[in-house]
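ARCHIVE CARD
CATEGORY: sequence design from structure
SOURCE FIELD: tokenized fold
FIELD CONTENT:
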């Protein structure tokens, strides 16, 4: 893992300060004054002026860097601006170079995993790219916990289970992280053979989006087999349930309407349908995120387990 700030400190600053020191020297300033202006020692200025500091060519030759140096150096030398103003101009330059510029390229070279993510991952903590990555991490972590529930295999439907979570700004199926290969019961144990991906689910993701359309802070769900006893277990631990029609056509609108009709501030904990021709009865456990869904699933299945004992 390499932070973008490391690229600035290790690559940009030596090049930029060296260029600025040389420009200030050409303006006639002594090394002591240059050192005070750019915030380094006189010995360091001497290294800059004698070429002992290696420049990053991509940055040194960038016209935006040259333009900033040519503006700041004479203004500092003549007292037209102070060091705070020079700092502001320099920070603006850094932001410009980061925004899909040479600093972004240098950072990506040092951390190849960033390839294709776009520099907004560095510039904006709330960027779409980072939100998608966080969503995938959330599902991956919750999945590990989900698979430790010992009775989960008993509740996996024939079509398999899936754990899905939508990104904060999700609007389409491609904004929802889920498992491409589902969760299946193998030798009596729940198993997932794939890692979460965006756009990997249709039915669970559609339901997640439908709930999120009404309650934006609820953006995750898990599907399990529906049985009549499930409603009794849910009621016993205070989970609200809501039935909807099983048809796939228009499901998002159907679920959204059914939730809106309840008129409550919170969605039910469980949405379910009783199946139809060619459609297996399924229940969906909802939550704020995938981890919340796992917590609710664990409580529900523990109740079912105790009732059988």
């Amino acid at each position: 893992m390499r932070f973008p700030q490391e690229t600035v400190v290790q690559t940009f600053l030596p090049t930029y300060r060296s260029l600025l020191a040389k420009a200030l020297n050409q303006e006639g300033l002594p090394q002591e004054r240059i050192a005070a202006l750019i915030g380094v020692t006189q010995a360091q200025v001497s290294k800059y002026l004698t070429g002992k500091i290696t420049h990053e060519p991509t940055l040194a030759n960038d016209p935006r860097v040259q333009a900033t140096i040519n503006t700041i150096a004479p203004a500092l030398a003549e007292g037209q601006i102070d060091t705070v103003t020079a700092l502001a101009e320099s920070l603006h330059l850094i932001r410009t170079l980061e925004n899909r510029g040479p600093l972004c390229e240098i950072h990506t070279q040092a951390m190849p995993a960033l390839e294709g993510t776009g520099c907004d991952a560095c510039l904006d903590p709330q960027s779409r790219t980072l939100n998608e990555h966080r969503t995938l991490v959330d599902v991956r972590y919750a999945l590990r916990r989900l698979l430790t529930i010992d009775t989960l295999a008993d509740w996996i439907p024939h079509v398999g289970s899936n754990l899905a979570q939508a990104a904060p700004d999700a609007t389409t199926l491609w904004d929802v992280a889920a498992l491409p290969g589902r969760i299946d019961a193998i030798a009596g144990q729940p198993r997932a053979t794939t890692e979460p991906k965006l756009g990997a689910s249709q039915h669970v993701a559609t339901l997640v989006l439908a709930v999120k359309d009404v309650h934006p802070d609820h953006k995750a769900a898990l599907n399990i087999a529906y049985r009549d006893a499930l409603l009794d277990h849910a009621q016993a631990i205070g989970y609200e349930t809501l039935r909807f029609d099983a048809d796939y056509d228009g499901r998002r609108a159907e679920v959204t309407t059914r939730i809106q009709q309840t008129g409550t501030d919170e969605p039910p904990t469980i949405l379910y349908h009783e199946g139809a021709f060619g459609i297996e009865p399924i229940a969906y456990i909802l939550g704020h995120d995938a981890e919340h869904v796992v917590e609710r699933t664990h409580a529900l299945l523990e109740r079912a387990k105790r009732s059988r004992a």
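CARD ANNOTATION: Residues 4-26 form the longest helix (23 residues). The chain has two domains: 4-123, 128-308.
SHELF: design records, drawer C
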